[in-house]
Structures are given as structure tokens and as C-alpha cells.
Amino acid sequence: MTRDADENFFGHRRFLWLWAILLALTGLAGGYLYNKPIGGRNGGTRLGLIYGAIATAGIAFLMWYGVRKRYSYASGSGTLKGWLSAHVWIGVALGLLVPLHSGFHLGWNVHAAPYLLMLATIASGIWGAYAYVSMPSRMEARREGLSLRRCATEIETIAKSMAALASDKSSAFSALAARVTVPFNPSLVRILFLERYVLKEEELSSLLASLPKHEYQDGLELTRMGARRLHLCNTAVAEASALARMRIWLYLHLPMSFACVAAVVAHVFWALSFRSSAR
User: Fold this and answer.
1) Whole-angstrom Cα distance, residue 235 to residue 148?
2) Residue 114 lies in a domain
3) For a disulfide at 260, which of 60, 86, 117, 178, Cβ 3.0-4.6 Å?
């Protein structure tokens, strides 16, 4: 496996996009400090308009990523990982570029709405990017090398073994089997809030103590299998919870992105209309 295959999109090609963005921001900040227009720095100066146009182009590029992601596997230039790296770092850069555009004059008005929406979108995007990087390794570690399908298969296999072990046993053993064989049918609430299945040690100890002596060792084996099955059930719930939270994040991030675009369009339209009427 190559180095490029091992790296995540944050550090794609040795942080190519991070260095490119830092270099661009350094140049833009230098231009901002060098420029001293009459009336002070603001979004209506020539440099302010240039920076605003660059920020708008950056937003358009970020929105294009959704289209690029959908059709990148068969055609197009660049890799999906490279586009995602650019998407993340340009998004972060916009949070710094917009204040340069406005001359750091951001009040509680219609012009601040696009920036606030942008910051919220960037923040949600950073969380999503971090989750996409960290979750796969966490999922794999929780599964102990098992695929989710094999995990479900093992849960069912253990349940059958437990049922076989509990057959033709005493009523006390049946009570123990009923307690340790926790029904695995997770609700949406359990998945979303990651409610784990638990077995209370005190209760299990009491049930084991009630077994006839000749069934005690089988009771210990049943408890061991039940604990293993419960661990796999919690693993499956944790993975389903992570996937559900990522889906919810996506349903929030996309509408926020479109709301940001709408606010930017309104801001640009208002600014250009005001500029033309002022002439």
C-alpha cells in the first residue's frame, strides 16, 4: 500500500492544500495591511470588493464539491481525496478571508448574516471531517476485526448456543438464561443516544448462587457467552449510532450550506444595488 493510500484527506499530498491556503492567506493579509484607502478599510473599497469576489468564488467551489463527489469516480480531474482536502482547507480559509473583505467591520445587520451562517457551516464541516477521519478506525477497533455482518452472525450463533446449553435444565438455570439472553432489537432512541445493554453483576451472582451444584459450571459458561454476546450487541449499537449521527450531521450541514449561499447572494445583490444607486 502506498503512502498516498494511507494518508487521510487532511494531509493529502503532504498537506498540499494547507500550505497553499496559508501562502494565499499570507499574501491576502499582506495586501490588506499595505492597502490604506481613504475612509478606512471596508467591503466597499476596491480591495474589499476583490476579497469579496474571492470569497464568493471560494463558496462556489465548496458547493461544487457535492457535484464533484457524486460524479468523481468515473470522470473528472483530480482525486476525490484531493477535492475533499481542498474543500476542508478552503472552507477554513473563508472564515479568515471574509473579515479581510469587510475590514473587520461586522455588526449585527444583514451583512453579518452570511458570515455567521458561514461560520456555523464551517464549524459543522470541521466536526464532520474529524468524524469521518476518526470513526472508521474506532469502528474497526470496536469490532475487533469483525465486519458488521459477521458481528451480527456471531450474535445469532451465540444466542443459539446459549439456548442449546439451557435446554433440559432446572428452572433456576432457565431464569439465568432468560436474564443473560438480552433481546437484541435496538430502538431508534437507543441508537441515537447510545444506550448500552448492561448486566448487573449482583443480579447475576444471585442467579448463579441459586443454581444446583451440578449446573454451576454450565451457568458460568452461559454467563460468559451472554457477556460476549452483550459486548457484540453494544458494538453493533455503537456503530449504528455513529452512522446515524453522521447522517443527521449531513442533513444539517447541507441545508446550512444552501442557507449560507442564499444569504451571500442576497448580500451581493444588496451591495451591488446600493453601489449602483449611489453613483
Assistant:
1) 9
2) yes
3) 117
* Alpha-carbon gap, residue 113 to 268, rounded angstroms: 12
- Looking at residue 2, what is its pLDDT? 44
Give the whole-angstrom CA distance, residue 166 versus residue 178: 9
In a domain, 65, yes or no: yes
User: Which residue range is the domain that position 197 belongs to?
Assistant: 148-241
User: Tell me: the pLDDT tens digits for 188-233?
Assistant: 889 888 899 999 889 999 999 999 999 999 999 999 999 999 999 9
Q: How many domains does the chain have?
A: 2
Give the integer Cα–Cα distance in Å for 11 and 181.
Answer: 46
Inside any domain, residue 246: no
Residues 202 and 259 in one domain: no
Residue type, 142: R
pLDDT in tens, 23-51: 999 999 999 999 999 888 888 899 999 99
Shared-domain flag, residues 91 and 218: no
Same domain, 231 and 266: no
pLDDT, tens digit, 9 for 90 and up, residues 47-82: 999 999 999 999 999 988 877 766 654 444 456 677
- CA distances, 254 to each of 4, 56, 128, 247 (Å): 28, 17, 12, 11
Each residue's pLDDT tens digit, 99-141: 999 998 877 766 788 899 999 999 998 888 877 777 766 666 6
Task: Give me the torsion for CA of 153, 156, 158, 161, rounded to 10°.
Answer: -130
pTM over 0.70: no
Would you say 87 and 69 are in contact if contact means Cβ atoms under 8 Å apart? no
CA 121 to chain centre: 13
